[in-house]
Amino acid sequence: MGDPAPELGWVARELSEDFPHLGLQYLALSAQPGPSPEPVRRRLGALAGRLSGGHVVHMRQDPVPSAYRVFWRQVGIDPDTVRTPIERIALDRLIRGGLPSRNLLDDAITIATLETGVALTAFDGDLLEGPLGLRLARDAEPLGGSGRPLAGGQIVLSDAHRALAMLGGEVAADRCVGPSTRRIAIAAVQVKGVTQISVEEALWTVADTVGLPGELPSERW
Amino acid sequence: MRDVLEQSTAVAGKALGPPLEPRPAIQGAPPDERHGRRSLLGQVERLESELACLFASSWPRKGLELSVPGRGGPRLLSLEELEGLRDDLVERVDHARRSLSDRTYLEERNRRRIEEMLLEPERHKWVRIGNEDIGEPGCRHWHVRPRWGLLGMLMNWWRVLISSGCPLAQGRRARGDPEPAT
């Protein structure tokens, strides 16, 4: 059986006008959150061992991390204040001296991000409605079903009905993966300079680490 | 290492002041503005890449100002904001490039001076140059000192002492303490 093809998300017109290469892809996984098994912990440890100070300093010149830095800057984020996902993980590794295991999903995302540099976000798949995409938030629109109100114009990951997460930041508390989650939707934001193969590799790495690919409820997707 | 990675953040925090309020979205820019926006986004891309190169080139030097404040994102910036961002990046890249150039010039002079110290220590009495002065990591330093103390000073016998590196994290072992297992 081959690897499942990721679903292609939508991008709002005003965003794609400025960023024609911007995209979102996601994959549904049947998996239960929980502690990481020993092989995943070992893999995380091995990756932490590969990250030296020099590597981290020069990371921002690598194609994929650099692509995210550029995009962060273009949408008004200072990448030295709000770090891109891979830089955040790398900096954590330097500060803590390692990458401690947290849980299977977080570890899988850390592994995939370190290996590919791609920005990934996970949601509880059972709570999503319709295909995922990127758009601008409406004025005072709540984050998730009942989260804090967003300022109009902020770039958000969204399903057909509501904003699920801020780009590169906060995920709605009522849509993120929790102990009762049975299906996970893992989404990758693709920006200019990030190849399709990197995005697929990132999604498959999470799928391989977390469990078998599954399907989200068809009646809602 | 943390100092290097966090230095720009700390400075950015100072420059930012209170967090910027996100502004309304740019809804469907007119075609003539779209071209300008694309061009500015391209310039921001090039300048940010240049800034990243300068950051990597400047390591392990400290104190080089490389931060440009954010604009309250993630959101679409207006044409004026993109111009402002581009101008800030140009200024920062230009400043960083000049600072780095000045530093590397001094470092080159210090490297030459170390060679001269090694050849003729008596002409560089008491001069001390560290790794930081030549843009390298570590604590090694070259120090011109008299051989045999006062006698060397009187006889003009000078030599260069090269330190063995950074001090041990745990300090020197007290006399009589057992040697730590390796």
- Report the principal-axis shape of chain A: globular
Highest-level CATH class of chain A: Alpha Beta
Structural class of chain B: mainly alpha
Terminal residue distance of chain B: 26 Å
Percent of residues in beta strands of chain B: 5-15%
Give the low-confidence spans of chain A.
Answer: 212-221
Q: How many domains would you count in the coordinates of chain A?
A: 1
Write the layout of secondary structure elements.
The complex is a heterodimer of chains A (221) and B (182).
Chain A: E1 7-8, E2 10-11, H1 13-18, E3 23-30, H2 38-50, H3 53-59, H4 63-74, H5 85-96, H6 104-116, E4 119-124, E5 133-136, E6 155-158, E7 163-166, E8 183-190, H7 196-210
Parallel strand pairs in A: 2-5
Antiparallel strand pairs in A: 1-3, 3-8, 4-8, 5-6, 6-7
Helix pairs in contact in A: 2-6, 6-7
Chain B: H1 2-16, H2 31-58, H3 79-119, E1 128-130, E2 141-146, H4 149-155, E3 158-162
Helix pairs in contact in B: 2-3
Description:
The complex is a heterodimer of chains A (221) and B (182). Chain A is 35% helix and 17% strand. Chain A is α+β, with helices and mostly antiparallel strands. Chain A has one domain: Phenylalanyl-trna Synthetase, Chain B, domain 3 (Phenylalanyl-tRNA Synthetase, Chain B, domain 3), CATH 3.50.40.10. Chain A has a 4-stranded antiparallel sheet, covered by helices on one side. Chain A has a 4-stranded mixed sheet with strand order 2-5-6-7. In chain A, a hairpin with a 4-residue loop joins strand 6 (155-158) and strand 7. In chain A, helix 2 packs parallel to helix 6 (104-116). Chain A is globular, with a radius of gyration of 17 Å. The two termini of chain A are 23 Å apart. The model of chain A is unreliable at 212-221 (pLDDT under 50). By secondary structure, chain B is mostly helical. Chain B has a domain at 33-64 and 77-162. Chain B is 50% helix and 8% strand. Chain B contains 4 helices and 3 strands; from the N terminus they run αααββαβ. Chain B has helices at 2-16, 31-58, 79-119, 149-155, and strands at 128-130, 141-146, 158-162. Chain B has a 3-stranded antiparallel sheet with strand order 1-2-3. In chain B, helix 2 runs parallel beside helix 3 (79-119). The longest helix of chain B has 41 residues, at 79-119. At the A-B interface, helix 1, helix 3, helix 4 and helix 5 of A face helix 1, helix 2 and helix 3 of B.
